[in-house]
Amino acid sequence: MAKKSAIEKNKRREKLVKKYAEKRAALKALAKDESLSLEERYNARLKLAKLPRNSAPNRVRNRCEVSGRPRGFYRKLKMSRIALRELGSLGKIPGLVKSSW
């Protein structure tokens, strides 16, 4: 199990990403728009830089929803490899069969 503080910090980041997503997208569009003057694009970049760092989507860490483990994460299942193996062995994941040869 991951530290509770790390899991909570990640949840706060996810909330900030959702809160600032539209504003961030609009500012990025302005900054990339080549029809605008250089000064307007620069001001858009400055406003973008003033947004909270944790509102950037790449700062959110993929974590297992069962254990909170940050590594060995399967995106499709939103679960770590260890949690997947445990739940699979218990028969709690439909269609998953433990292989042996």
From TrEMBL:
GO annotation terms (biological process): translation
Q: Select a single GO molecular function from the record's annotations and give it.
A: rRNA binding
Say yes or no: keyword Transmembrane helix present: no
Query: A Pfam family this protein belongs to?
Result: Ribosomal_S14
Is Cell membrane set as a keyword in this record? no
The UniProt entry's GO CC annotations, sorted and at most eight, read: cytoplasm; small ribosomal subunit
Q: Which InterPro entries match?
A: Ribosomal_uS14, Ribosomal_uS14_bac/plastid, Ribosomal_uS14_CS
Q: Which UniProt keywords apply?
A: Ribonucleoprotein, Ribosomal protein, RNA-binding, rRNA-binding
Described purpose of this protein according to its UniProt entry = Binds 16S rRNA, required for the assembly of 30S particles and may also be responsible for determining the conformation of the 16S rRNA at the A site.
Q: Which PANTHER family match?
A: 30S RIBOSOMAL PROTEIN S14, SMALL RIBOSOMAL SUBUNIT PROTEIN US14M
User: What does the subunit section of this Swiss-Prot or TrEMBL entry state?
Assistant: Part of the 30S ribosomal subunit. Contacts proteins S3 and S10.
The record's similarity note reads: Belongs to the universal ribosomal protein uS14 family.
What is the protein name for this chain?
A: Small ribosomal subunit protein uS14
* Species assigned in the record: Roseibium aggregatum (strain ATCC 25650 / DSM 13394 / JCM 20685 / NBRC 16684 / NCIMB 2208 / IAM 12614 / B1) (Stappia aggregata)
Recite the lineage of the species.
Bacteria, Pseudomonadati, Pseudomonadota, Alphaproteobacteria, Hyphomicrobiales
